[in-house]
Design a protein that fits this description.
Elements: E1 4-7, H1 22-33, E2 37-40, H2 46-55, E3 61-64, E4 69-72, E5 80-81, H3 86-99, E6 102-107, E7 110-113, H4 120-126, E8 131-133, H5 137-143, E9 146-152, H6 158-168, E10 173-179, E11 182-187, H7 192-203, E12 210-214, H8 220-225, E13 228-231, H9 237-242, E14 245-246, H10 254-262
Parallel strand pairs: 1-2, 1-12, 7-8, 12-13, 13-14
Antiparallel strand pairs: 3-4, 4-5, 6-7, 6-9, 9-11, 10-11
Helix pairs in contact: 1-10
């Protein structure tokens, strides 16, 4: 019996327009009414995922920053936070400066950039509203604790960037592709799977009673770990190959169908 259900947000619960369909809303509400703990597991910072959780009446710890930041919806401080070592963040930013990559630094619930290379709506939709332009990176490192470093590029550039990042940060950081145009460096040991496992233990729920649903590479660890791992129909081929079941795609309310099949 499913007692905990974790859902990726972008590309799973909602699409690029950030809308959530009535059928998905109803299924999430019905699952919670049955006593299932429903949570969101995302690469977003906690402050930027919180409004979506509140909109869905979710009252549970949320998994932010790829599972490295876990916090109750109505709490002021996290239950768990695994920061990215400052020296790793510095080196990641320095590598990006050398390569001319577009860098976004996540730290203390805020998002920092040196410049905007996309339309403001791009950052608003995919990163959240609370981003700050800064004159230099050291200013952030001196006053904030990093959580992760994200790089924005064209989709075709991401694989080579990932190879370089994995070679550069082996043993010092983990590298995830979280969107067609995003690749990230996060702390060692941080992923949605370890985050979901921590939350399940905290709540006293066994692995067999956990469902996880996602659509991208950063969702692979939690889909593999969960007792019921579900890939969306619009998920990457790799994620679909590791899942226990493939739901319909986002446009066909895959989250609702998964809940109807395994919970409702």
């Amino acid at each position: 019996m499913i007692r905990l259900a974790a859902f990726d947000l972008d590309g799973t619960v909602m699409g690029p327009d950030r809308s959530i369909t009535p059928r998905v809303r109803e299924a999430l509400a019905a699952a919670q009414a049955r006593g299932v703990v429903v949570t969101l597991a995302t690469g977003r910072m906690f402050p930027t995922v919180l409004p979506y959780a509140l909109d869905l009446n979710i009252d549970a710890p949320l998994l932010a920053c790829q599972g490295g930041w876990i916090q109750w919806v109505h709490a002021d401080t996290p239950l768990l936070r695994v920061p990215l070592p400052v020296e790793v963040a510095r080196d990641a930013v320095a590598l990006a400066e050398q390569r001319g990559w577009h860098t976004v630094l996540y730290a203390d619930g805020e998002i920092f950039l040196r410049e905007l290379r996309e339309m403001p709506s791009f950052y608003e939709a995919l990163l959240g509203l609370n981003n700050a332009l800064i004159p230099d990176w050291e200013q952030v490192f001196q006053h904030h604790i990093p959580d992760k470093v994200l790089f924005v590029a064209e989709a075709a550039e991401i694989p080579a960037m990932g190879d370089l990042l994995r070679a550069s940060f082996a043993g010092r950081g983990q590298v995830f592709r979280s969107h067609d145009r995003f690749i990230e460096v996060v702390p060692v040991g941080v992923d949605k799977g370890t985050g979901l496992a921590w939350l399940a233990e905290y709540l006293g729920i066994s692995r067999e009673d956990v469902m996880a649903v996602g659509d991208h590479e950063n969702d692979v660890p939690m889909v593999q770990w969960a007792g019921v791992g579900v890939a969306m129909g619009n998920a990457t081929a790799h994620l679909q190959s590791t899942a226990d079941w493939i739901a319909p795609p986002l446009e066909d309310d895959g989250v609702a169908v998964a809940l109807e099949r395994f919970v409702l």
